Amino acid sequence: MSLHVFAAFVTPLGTAANNRGLTEGNITSLQKLVWNGQVHTTVSAESIRFALRRRLNEQEPCNRTYDDAARANVWKDDAFSAWAAKSKEKTYIDDDLLGFMSAEGAKQEKEKGTAKVRRAVLEVSRAVSLTPWSGDVTFNAASPGATPSAQKKGSNPVPYGTEMHATRYQYGVALTPEALRVPARAATALNQLCALGPVAGNHGRFLFDFSPESVVFRLTQEAAPRILHAFEPSSRAGGVELASLLRKVKSGDVPAKELVLGGHVVEGLSAEEREVLAGAELHTGVVAACRAACKRMEVGKK
Asked: Based on CB atoms within 10 Å of each CB, which residue in 42, 74, 82, 274 is the most buried?
């Protein structure tokens, strides 16, 4: 049976904003969705994948990189030739983990188009704020000439508004190491997710630290994750709790021995909760928990 690796991450408390478009009367909005009947802010999986790809490129070459000077993506092999049936070329880590798709339409009538597709082995969920968005907005004024493309006439400041959200974000990932061309890249992915830095949404003007404050790993032969979005707001130490996950462990849906927990949430566990989690690995640090999860993957391959 295959070993499946799932993880749930929660970030530290931060202030999300998307401070773009300094034009008069403009409101710079955050992405939102209705979650448990209330409006929450959200960060796309693509934004997380973009930040992860940059981290991966520091470990080994990626096929797709971002040229900051040209403000464009650059491909080393946009034909994905290494994935041809008889190719012996070395594959790129980002193609292996994050997949790809290149579609081309038919060139003549009655012909069929072509598509080169690899499903992402590392699946990433959309990040959702841990708390509802209460509607915080700031009103600002850009000074005349703040940007060359902004106000060109007059000497008055340009008012604009910015939506903000002081919150944590949580998201989850799933992967099956044996589905990778190079299974060892699963550990690289987990390590880089635990070291993720800024993740900006549509625009890169705000810094929100996406390195997880707490994490839950589940390594199992069951295909169902059951731990995604495990974190819930709490007023106690750590600021988050795992009530839903603890219920699943109590009920037997999630065996405690399949879990590795790390970070601030571990410090806030009560004696009773630690008893429920007996058999799970508990670490006060995220990095230590990641190392333990990677070690379990190594053992699982043998």
From this structure: 42
